[in-house]
Amino acid sequence: MQNAKRSMQNAKVRVSSVLHLSFTILRFAFPYLRSLCFLLFVLLVTPLRGAEAITPEQAAEGWIALFDGETLFGWQPTSDANWRVENGAIHVDSNQKSGQEGWLMTTTEFADYELHIEFQSPATTNSGVFLRTSLDPKDPTKDCYEVNIAPDDNPFPTGSLVGRTQSKPQARPASAGRETWHAFDILANGSKITVSLDARQVASLRDPHPIPRGRIGLQFKEGPVVFRNIRLKPLGLKPLFNGKDLAGWNANRADNSEYTVTPTGELQVKDGPGQLETDSEFGDFVMQLDCQVNGDGLNSGIFFRCIPGDVLMGYESQIHNGMVGGDPTNPVDCGTGGIFRRQNARRIVARDHEWFTITIIADGPHMAVWVDGIQVSDWTDDRKIDENPRRGLRTKPGTIAIQGHDPTTDLLFKNLRIVELPE
After folding, report:
1. Contact partners, residue 178, CB within 8 Å, separation at least 6
2. pLDDT at 30
3. C-alpha Rg value of the chain to the nearest Å
4. Burial level of 287, CB count in 10 A (0-12/13-18/19+)?
5. Which of 26-30, 55-59, 291-295 has the lowest mean pLDDT?
6. I need a labelling partner for 345 at 20 to 30 A (CA). Which of 100, 214, 320, 371 fits?
7. Where does the pLDDT of residue 174 fall: very low under 50, low under 70, confident under 90, or very high at 90 and above?
8. Regarding beta strands 285-293 and 410-420, do their DSSP bridges make them parallel or antiparallel, or are they unpaired?
9. pLDDT digit string (tens) for 276-305?
10. What is the pLDDT of residues 370-415, one digit of tens each?
11. Phi and psi at residue 4, to the nearest 5°
């Protein structure tokens, strides 16, 4: 009996020791467990910043994502079709209000480009990808190019350019009519349009009367269809900076800023205020450049359609990577890629002390900016026409200027290139 009591007491001591040790471990580990749980929550719940839509390598090559995998930012529906984002893809399958077909159109117009887009649909679906299209296309032989998604018995089966040329049956993959993912790789370069389906060229066209530019549209016509991984690379951009000297630029209004070319061929701006201005003028254009901010939260900007010779009298694509409280969706002072005083960047994508790529597209009253391939602004100037973009809409050509903002300014630029959009 005595042995039994002693065993019970020893067991109680062991249990007490184990509980005490467990509580001690939990007490010291709790803050770390709480941080780990919060990190897991953030990873699971917080939307990605768009990195899934485009890789850093693609962004450096000039690719921009037309779809961020999360929202329809940068797109405009033309009907009541139920366009929506689910599981990182754009879905549409009905138009219960009117039953009519319609499109999801980019808000930006493009001219020459490479386009990659992946799609999935049943074999019976009739849809399409529209190139250089008006907002309300009427005839695919006149006001747009339509790359068809359609059954094999359609006069223009998947990969065809509707009303222009049929896709090659022998080149279409055997799975083209099945509900699996497929990819279009499309080249629109001047009068030449080529279509590849799952890495096989299926259609080619040389148009004697090419449509110069327009939107990209996704069609809802008959049956469900899903789109994802939509990205575009502008073509035809020419160097705006030679990496050797400031030829083609003037420092007439440099004032307190210093603009130099580094031994490694970058354009460096220090101090300010001041500006470096192009000798040439540009109206509607695509511009791309690489930038590095050599400080924390420094301020600069790319001004365009400026009044020549005046002090930064143009639209400004802001450069400022600061965030309020570390929240990338809450930029400081408009944020990199925002249109200053018009539309804040919807998120901060770039980081100080690291190279990032900016893409600016101005087409008429519409302006859009991508940072590292992710679209961060999409703005249309609906003000009255004015010579000065600070006061109203300016669509006429103007110069481009790089801002030296203040005495703390220290930025590097390279790979500045531009192409004017055709009329």
Report:
1. 123
2. 39
3. 27
4. buried
5. 26-30
6. 214
7. low
8. antiparallel
9. 999 999 999 999 999 999 999 999 999 999
10. 999 999 999 999 999 999 999 999 999 999 999 999 999 999 999 9
11. -65, -45
Q: What is the DSSP letter of 392?
A: S
Rounded CA gap, 380 and 383, in Å?
A: 9
With tokens 């200027």, the residue in question is 401
How many angstroms from the chain centroid is the CA of residue 45?
22
Q: How far apart are CA 359 and CA 200, in angstroms?
A: 30
**What pLDDT digit, counting tens, does each position of 81-126 carry?**
999 999 999 999 987 676 678 999 999 999 999 999 999 999 999 9
Chain-centre distance of CA 196, in angstroms? 23
Decide: residue 32, CB within 10 A, 0-12 exposed, 13-18 middle, 19+ buried: exposed
- Nearest-angstrom CA–CA distance, 417 and 235: 11
- For residues 307 and 344, give the distance between their C-alpha atoms in angstroms, rounded to a whole number: 23
Q: Distance (Å, rounded) from C-alpha 73 to C-alpha 379?
A: 11
Question: Which of these, 216, 185, 181, lies nearest to 201 by C-alpha position?
Answer: 185
Output the six-digit token pair for 149: 């998604």
The residues, ordered by sequence, that sit 6+ positions from 352 with a Cβ below 8 Å of its Cβ are 293, 294, 295, 296, 297, 298, 321
Q: Which residues contact residue 254 at a Cβ distance below 8 angstroms, ignoring those fewer than 6 apart?
A: 274, 275, 276, 404
Closest to 93 measured CA to CA, from 226, 224, 220: 224
- How many residues are given for the chain? 423
Grouping H, G, I as helix, E, B as strand and the rest as coil, residue 183 is: strand
Q: Which residue do the tokens 């290139």 mark?
A: 417
Q: Which amino acid is at 195?
A: V
Question: Hey, what are 114's tokens?
Answer: 């490479």
CB 402 within 8 A of CB 269: yes
Contact 343, 377 (CB under 8 A): yes
Residues linked to residue 402 through DSSP beta bridges, in sequence order: 276, 302
The pTM for the full model equals 0.86
Phi, psi of 99 (to 5 degrees): 75, 0
Tokens 């919807």 locate to 346
Nearest to 380 by CA among 354, 399, 405, 361: 361
